[in-house]
Amino acid sequence: MGKIVQFFKESYAELRKVVWPSRDDVVSSVGVVIVSTVIIAAVLGLVDVLLLLGVQAIF
Question: Least buried of 4, 25, 50, 59, by fewest C-beta within 10 Å?
Fold first, then answer.
């Protein structure tokens, strides 16, 4: 039981050392992720349509 308590104490101590990002940093990062996701989805959608048209042209 003592090891479990020690684990939580050490975990709490480590979490206090963490430098958490500011709200602006998080919002900026989320924006980058959303824009990147939309761009990649558009590119993959375009590739899918082109492959579909290519397969339909062959058959």
Answer: 59
d(CA 58, CA 41): 26
Q: Residue 58: which domain range?
A: 20-59
Beta strands in the chain (DSSP E): none
Tens place of pLDDT per residue across the chain (59 aa)? 889 999 999 999 999 999 999 999 999 999 999 999 999 999 999 999 999 999 999 98
Q: How many structural domains compose the chain? A: 1
> Which residue's entry shows tokens 């479990």?
4
38 in a domain, yes or no? Answer: yes
What pTM was estimated for this model as a whole? Answer: 0.67
